[in-house]
From TrEMBL:
InterPro entries: D_Ser_am_lyase, Ser/Thr_Dehydratase, TrpB-like_PALP, TrpB-like_PALP_sf. Its EC number is 4.3.1.18. The gene is dsdA. This is Probable D-serine dehydratase. PANTHER family: D-SERINE DEHYDRATASE, THREONINE DEHYDRATASE, MITOCHONDRIAL-RELATED. The keyword Lyase applies. Keywords: Lyase, Pyridoxal phosphate. One of its GO terms (molecular function) is pyridoxal phosphate binding. GO terms for biological process: D-serine catabolic process; isoleucine biosynthetic process.
């Protein structure tokens, strides 16, 4: 299929694989309250409650959660020396923070928020159905021998570019489920090995992510003992991620940040299929409304959310349909076709999407480590392009004007969501750093 994208200031750059900022023409005032949306903001609160309920169980399953009493949370770090290295020292950039999901416990990426949530909620439902857990009863019974024996008869399956597989596989094995992860060809070998060591069955496909998901779906359809974590449609994953918003809101408040019409908050979220950035963005819009400006970021050759949302098509458009390759070192974002569910939900509330070149990912990776010891994988660094796009580019200025933000940027806050990295093995990380260093020295 070949698709013509509509006339748009970003179109030529997108099609040529050059970094670009697309502004969403469907963005609405108070878009979170759009009555056509299939979900409600109250579901974010429910997810927060569920996370609290699961905490005592998570603490038993994952000793690294002892200090946080079972909560899976990351730090908000103010970019001090890092903002200087990246070029955001000037006052016009306001305050710049990194939301350090690369250090999230349990799975080492933002995927811990979605994958762990869905697997544990599924286990809870199953235990309730079988009478092991009574409604309102002690959740830690899910770690009992009886519950584990039940879970051992069931399989959790998922398709992944790597990190979702890690999070779902780790969560499933911690409760005693069997787990099968269908990996796309982009998945890094160390992620495959880590899962295999945990007893997860990994099926390595020579095809892209959409195909890996399809294979997992087909396997599960034919077998009632397999539960399929559906990254293309899952509301459970989405709301698991969405609970990150209240965590961030509390951290911003503690850092003395005001968010309102006069003090805009910009959030930059790396996007693959859209679930993780969509959930976090939705949660933030539920808290801050129009004072929060959420942007997705994608690799120049894999801008699946950008091309689909720009197309305005009801049918999903893939990056191949517009002649792009879906080739990138950013494995977590190597996705050719976004989630239709996320596209619908984001339509009235996403401010825009920008794209980044692979070399820049390595440059930022090197800067984050050398300045503030923030360890990232390439996908996780993409948001660093955000402040420059907003403050300096023609499209960014057009956005400021359209939103009444001109003159307010010095009092703005930028949050760069860094989404993975803690689990990257040392030898692999060294290679990333060498590539980053060579690029920085060229400048
Ligand atoms: C490090 C990292 N960042 C961002 C994403 C994007 O998440 P999603 O595919 O839900 O859009 C992924 C996905 O695997 C990832 O691994």
């Amino acid at each position: 299929m070949s698709v013509q994208l509509p006339n748009d200031p970003a179109r030529d750059d997108v099609l040529a694989g050059r970094p670009a900022l697309w502004l969403n023409p469907a963005l609405k005032v108070n878009g979170i309250a759009d009555p056509s949306l299939p979900i409600r903001a109250s579901q974010v609160k429910e997810a927060e409650q569920n996370w609290k309920l699961l905490a005592p169980l998570l603490q038993i399953c994952f000793p690294e959660l002892t200090e946080s009493k079972g909560l899976i949370q990351s730090k908000l770090i103010e970019a001090t020396s890092l903002r200087k290295a990246v070029g955001y020292e000037a006052a016009e950039y306001g305050r710049v923070f990194v939301k350090a999901d690369g250090d999230l416990p349990v799975a080492g990426s933002i995927k811990a928020r979605g994958g762990v949530y869905e697997v544990f909620m599924y286990a809870k439902q199953m235990a309730e159905k079988r009478g092991i857990l009574t409604p309102g009863g002690d959740i830690t019974v899910l770690a009992s021998t009886q519950a584990r024996a039940l879970f051992a008869q069931h399989t959790i399956a998922v398709g992944s570019t790597g990190n979702l597989g890690l999070s779902v596989g780790i969560a499933a094995r911690a409760l005693g489920f069997r787990a099968v992860v269908h990996m796309s060809s982009d998945a890094k070998q160390w992620k495959v090995e880590r899962l295999t060591r945990l007893g997860v069955e990994v099926v390595q496909h020579k095809a892209d992510y959409t195909t890996a998901v399809e294979c997992a779906r087909i396997d599960a359809e034919g077998d009632p003992t397999i539960y399929f974590v559906d990254d293309e449609r899952s509301e459970m994953l989405f709301f698991g991620y969405s609970a990150a918003a209240s965590e961030l809101a509390g951290q911003l408040e503690a850092a003395g940040v005001t968010v309102d019409e006069e003090h805009p908050l910009f959030i930059y979220l790396p996007c693959g299929i859209g679930g993780a950035p969509g959930g976090a963005a939705y949660g933030l819009k539920a808290i801050f409304g129009d004072a929060a400006h959420a942007f997705f970021v994608e690799p120049v050759q894999s801008p699946c959310a950008l091309v689909h949302m720009m197309s305005g098509s009801k049918e999903l458009i893939s990056v191949y349909d517009v002649g792009l390759t879906n080739r990138t070192e950013a494995d977590g974002m190597a996705v050719a076709r976004m989630s239709a569910f996320v596209a619908d939900v984001m339509k009235p509330m996403l401010s825009g999407i920008f794209t980044v070149a692979d070399d820049d990912l390595f440059r930022w990776l090197w800067m984050a480590e050398t300045t503030q010891s923030i360890r990232l994988e390439p996908s996780a660094t993409a948001g660093f392009a955000g402040p420059e796009f907003i403050v300096k580019s023609t499209q960014g200025r057009a956005y400021q004007e359209a939103q009444g933000l001109t003159g307010k940027l010095a009092q703005a806050t930028h949050v760069i969501w860094t989404t993975g990295g803690a689990f990257v093995p040392e030898d692999q990380f060294k290679k990333f750093m060498d590539r980053g260093a060579s690029l920085v020295n060229v400048d």
